[in-house]
Amino acid sequence: MAVQTRSHWQQARVVETEDVADGVRRIVLEVAHPEHAAPGTHLDVDLPTPSGRQLRSYSIVRSEQDGRRLTLSVQLSPASRGGSKAMHALTVGDELTVSGPVQSFPLSVGASRYVLVAGGIGVTALVAMATALRRRGANYELVLVGRSRRFMAYLDELRAEHGERVRVHVDDEGTPLSVPELVGEVAAAPTTTELYMCGPIRLMDAIRSSWAEHALPETNLRFETFGSSGRFEAEEFRVRLPQFDRDVVVAPDTSILDALTAAGIDTLSDCRKGECGLCLAKVVDVDGTIDHRDVFLSRSQKQRCANLCLCVSRAVATDTSDRATVTLHLT
Ligand code: FES
């Protein structure tokens, strides 16, 4: 069983649901064992789906009543037969099995200035951080980036709470974010800035490479990923495992990790977001192109393609084949 056991699992009841943007649903849970949920924490949710039980991680957007009421927000993946569809189908009164709050994106104390950059649904990881910074009286800015306002959850709420500290960049309004300008401002600022970002991998890669070009301290750049974005559209591909004499098909809305679990093949995993590297597998052969969606491997490691992260990375076919095939060896 690849689902990682958290320190404790508990029952949670759905007490509210509401659409907060096109395809984004706010789900409020009441948990059986409340505990403090600091900014940057997420909940792991153990979901029954048509392809078996799946573990999904969702940022805790708000924690109220000393951690008894926890708000998550979930974007529906168009092709979902799994996690996001199951979450969107929840109604008030439904019961779920969830972890306690898991910290994976801690907010530091005492930086001179903070910049929080949210791409799309990545805003869910930053709402609680922005509130914490406001309460602390910190110097901060919240940069919200999206394709269109109708897909951008919490926009009005954040503007009402943070006023002039919110900067909005919307592609279809002709105001896209210029990453070189943003990072250039950080580099030119007289005070040290910590930048926290959560969003699609392309935005994160752009910020990371601009950060490196300006030789800004790596430790001042913090990020959290979500494994739903890559360089290519997700498509079905095949994984070959000669060590088990098995072939497994990975559907567009499933990860390799979940497909292997559903096929009864044990693997190690922890973050399930391409961050920790615990699920790394050796790539023996590829017919197609690997779409690395992790932030664990370096750019040169991704180019060498000797390994991939099972939890987020995928493969796409080349023009000459109708389905990619990746041959892996699990360690
Ligand atoms: S489980 Fe952490 S990188 Fe895959």
Automatic annotation (TrEMBL):
It comes from the Bacteria. Its cofactor is FAD. The keyword Nucleotide-binding does not apply. GO terms for molecular function: 2 iron, 2 sulfur cluster binding; methyltransferase activity; oxidoreductase activity. Residues 7-108 form the FAD-binding FR-type domain. GO terms for biological process: methylation. CDD domains: fer2, PDR_like. This is Vanillate O-demethylase ferredoxin subunit. It comes from Prauserella rugosa.
